[in-house]
Design brief:
The structure is a homodimer. Chain A has 13 helices and seven strands. By secondary structure, chain A is α/β, with parallel strands linked by helices. Chain A has a five-stranded parallel β-sheet with strand order 2-1-3-5-6, with helices on both faces. In chain A, α2 packs across α5, α8 packs across α12 and α9 runs parallel beside α12. Chain A is elongated. The N and C termini of chain A lie far apart (about 65 Å). At the A-B interface, α3, α6, α7, α8 and α9 of A face α2, α3, α6, α7 and α8 of B. β7 of chain A pairs antiparallel with β4 of chain B. The structure holds a DNA duplex.
Chain lengths: ~300, ~300
DNA sequence: GGTAAAATACAACGTTTGTTGCATATGATA
DNA sequence: TATCATATGCAACAAACGTTGTATTTTACC
């Protein structure tokens, strides 16, 4: 294990002061860290050649409340192994309400960071790369994201408009969401974003696109999402959050990576497109860097 | 995951033939394979939102003797990944272009994850907590985010509409963006989101809000952002990305944390509001879990 | 609208879990 | 060798486990 592991360090440093049985238990735990999380304490004790109570006593010897703390620690290590994030800052501070708020914030943010980091798994990277290829080939990219996924769809579309005119954002008032597909065909691709619960309208439009022969690239939350069946290629993102709501941060990250990959296919073209956009917005006086005087 | 996983494949292939509860259980298992090995069945069922017996029934539905077969399988997967993962990370035998794409993706995602993780610094957490308090006190929250920041503003507003009627999204066609502020006053708060380059219109509206006596909470990208001078309270997020474009993922994460903190102030109220929203959307037939038959 | 069948919730079962108090074994000191 | 403190094994405990049969709800069809 590359990352710092405070519990392991503690076991090692206290090892010399342990009784023979405690040492045997401790040695087994250090040499088989995953097993701790995967089997029961009694079975672990059996495999280590030690009484069950020895495990409990080891935990107390280490200053923990009980064996479950040992197990919880090792389970956490497995959960976070892929991400490499060991930033376990257990510093307590502030008033009660503030502390609760700070803890919730920290849990949420760490969870989000971990989920995005998890997207660096080889399987995800391959899908991202394939999706970027597919989108690059397309004559036109239709971007669809309703309800909570609107933010992701719109952001992708917005960034792409800085690069050129390739995307159409499927959205609009008065039930005209799908109108953009009127002249869409087999040379085009639909980038559909939808997470559980899946907006019925999104699925209907994806189905329609499929029937019209469009390629479909999906950003969704599960291998069993209804979009997976419709799409040629699906990129999966977690939406779990430590709060009441689903998170879209990983989905947004995915869309940003797609934009980055697309821009990277022709860096020079991307650069000059961005400069052109800059000039245009400059001439429209869109941006400011200081507090403006109010218009009359 | 690249490696073959027969049980996972089996779950996916039989998914369509499952009852709703079985699907929910199966979905959770597919999306949280590690958890299966790390927690008890009852806890897994709790997290998946199903009865414990549903897990047993899922196992039998898959042709297994009982739930323990599912757990054993996932434990084995974890045991094998330890050796498999490091080895796989080394053998990059893809094409050059693919590798470049994968590397760019990885760099971008790791950067995003790190930036979000950095928001767990005590200073950021305090600001988040204070911002949530300020927003909770307000009679009404006006949400402003133009151009690239639209996605963040809209997402915040969307989530908040699930909780109640407290927010107004400042947006609209035909230059009516600011109209929502017509009846705004000193009891209200403006949540303004803007990053470099700062949209002139955002700053003008923030200025107007200030003059009308509104409190201002800002999500922006720098201590020297023009919004910092206008706002009572500013939360800072990084927007650096390894690509041509700025990233909004950290800003989105911040807005999600704010939503989480606000919902957490009265968990019961939040829960019942969410249930009410659920019922409403259900009665409108907004969501689906399977590929829909096309409307005529 | 009524009915049969499928799906689901519930409650109780016998196990197994992690823990604890107590009896026994061990080994050092006098 | 006697004595004592520590280390270890054992047995019993409540709690939580995975499972199962039954009651209830939901669904689909006539």
């Amino acid at each position: 294990m590359l990352q710092a592991d405070p519990l392991r360090d503690r076991i090692v440093s206290l090892f010399d002061g342990m009784s023979p049985q405690l040492r045997q238990a401790a040695r087994y735990i250090i040499e088989h860290p995953q097993e701790v999380a995967l089997v029961s304490m009694r079975e672990l004790a059996r495999n280590a050649g030690v009484q069950p109570s020895t495990m409990t006593r080891l935990a107390k010897f280490l200053g923990l409340a009980g064996y479950d703390d040992i197990r919880a620690h090792h389970a956490e290590a497995i959960r976070f192994r892929v991400d490499g994030f060991a930033a376990r800052a257990m510093q307590h501070e502030d008033s009660e309400q503030d502390m609760a708020a700070a803890q919730l914030s920290r849990r949420m943010l760490q969870g989000l960071a971990a989920q995005i980091a998890r997207l660096t798994e080889p399987a995800s990277l391959e899908r991202l790369s394939a999706a970027a290829d597919r989108l690059a080939q397309a004559r036109r990219i239709f971007v669809l994201g309703l309800r909570s996924c609107h933010s992701v769809a719109w952001h992708f579309h917005y960034v792409m408009t800085l690069l050129g005119e390739k995307t159409t954002h499927l959205d609009g008032p008065a039930d005209t969401v799908g109108d953009g597909l009127i002249r869409a065909g087999a040379e085009d691709v639909l980038l559909a974003i939808s997470i559980n619960p899946y907006a019925l309208h999104s699925l209907e439009l994806a189905q329609l696109a499929r029937e019209k022969g469009l390629g479909i690239v999906a950003i969704t939350d599960s291998e069993v999402s209804p979009l997976v069946g419709l799409a040629d290629l699906a990129i999966l993102c977690s939406t779990e959050s430590q709060s009441f709501f689903h998170t879209l941060a990983p989905a947004l990250a995915i869309s940003e990576v797609l934009c980055g990959l697309l821009a990277n296919k022709d860096r020079n073209a991307a650069l000059s497109a961005l400069q052109r956009a800059d000039r245009h917005l400059l001439s429209l006086n869109t941006y400011a860097t200081a507090i403006p005087r109010r218009r009359i």
